[in-house]
Specification:
This protein is of the alpha+beta class. It is built from ten helices and 20 strands. It has an 18-stranded antiparallel barrel. Strand 5 and strand 6 form a beta hairpin. The radius of gyration is 31 Å and the shape is elongated. The N terminus is likely disordered.
Length: 579
Amino acid sequence: MKRCTAGRRSLRSRRGFSFPLSVALFGLFLVASVPLSAQSAEEAETAPFDPFGAVDSGDGFGFGGVQDATGAEAGQSLSIGGELRFSAVQFVGGLEPKDGLADAAASSASLANSAGKLRFDASGKDVDASLRLAVSPALLSGDPARVIDEAWVRLWIGDGMLDGGLMKVSWGKADSLSVLDVLNPRDLSDLTITDPKDQKIARPMLRASVPVGGATVEAAWLPVYESDRVAWDGPWAPKQVKDLKARGYTMLYYGADPAANGGLGNGLYANYYSTAWSTAYAGAQAQIYQTAYQTYLGTHPGDTVGAASAGTAAVNGGISQAMATANAVVAGMAAQLAAQADADANSRLAELIAYPEGNTLDWSQVGIRLTGTVGQVDLGFQYFWGFLPNPVIDAAGALASQTFPVTVAYNRYHQVGADLAAVIFGLNARFEAGANLTDDFAGDDPLTYNPSLAWAAGFDRDLFAGINLNAQAKGSYALGYGKIDDGATSADVQASAAPTDTLVILRLAQSLNRDAVRWELAGVWAPENRDFAVAPSLTFAIGEAELKLAGRWFGGDADGNLGQYADQSYAEVSLRYVF
């Protein structure tokens, strides 16, 4: 890579819970609200600051920053920048009813959040360094380690480059629906965060880049692993998570045999109920039986309990009364017993999943990428050996055998891919294609994802009156689909999935009044899942600050990856100041 001596910029660059099919689509619909540029990720590195966030300036925050100071030693400099943002989100319900599944509390809830970002970029002779901080109440309370958003050092060695640290690196030429951008996992636990760079989770990595002829070879090594993250609870917990929790809760609460013990099951509820029943019944029986026995002996001093039928009837009557009293006592405690069992079951759900540590060399991932230009066409080729972000969870087996916790696994895979960007018939076009090769070439291993072919394509074009159209699509096809067990009780990680998985995004945008006002309208469609999302926004630029009104409305199939969030459709107002 040829070293730039002026205005050098960085290259773009509690464990989460994720599920088959959901992870890809969760992130994909979010980009509907992100201004999509005609540039590739590599080209965006040197782009000027766009006050509407349409182009990442390369600083990782979408703003230019302040050239703050020059060091005492010639060639040293420090750049400081940051932003402050406040947003208020109101959930307003979806475009379509969810057949009685609506959560009234979630539909009427509101969220407010303040966040800040700060970056320090230093430059010296043959070295660059960067520290980027992100602060918000959610990070501080949930994952304070992620306050360090990025921290890396870059060495320039001749025309080559070597950098390492906590980094975010982008591969591929697609705007955002990339199938080749595989180095960083994504945090999809808050679907109001729509900036793809903010969704990325910085990971420790070492990267080298060297020029070879007219091309550039880039190699990256990630010594440890982390998967994509989705929410375990709250408004953005996906349906797959909720379903697993519901199955786990039922097993814990009622046990493996819910019909046992007269419908009490053999789980926590039965245990609580049985214990309370025995205590109440035994106490009531002993008390009333003793009373009946003593009463009989008082009137028949020379008799025994069984000496006369009258005596026997009296004692048996006392026993019947004891049973009735015990029944009444336990019935009165039913709500309390259920609440105790419910609290116990929910507390144990946190132990339902066990994640691998992922911090040994067994979890290393490596990749190599070759980029160059042939005529007017930018080309890229890459190979990656790592782990699929979707986990493999044998939940059915664990629930059937009551073996807990459920251990999460991740499939190793090889990816080979290619991409290009060119102007074709006046369109700024981008294409990506890749093959994700797992070990399940036969397609019949229920705990391994089938190999798949993946693609992405997009273009943008100015229409009229400054209106820009951007279109993107992304899809995959599972090889050996016919070998997937698709039964209702199947434990296959791809059960009930379609052989293809497609997402289409269309966006219209226009800047008015000398870029002081910008509107956007984006639509997302997932044909296999029969669901969609609509994302309008209106932004007012006020100096280096902005006021933005936006919304995300979800609809379609309530079981789809987008439609499931109909109750979480929302309107948002945000203020952002850049310094």
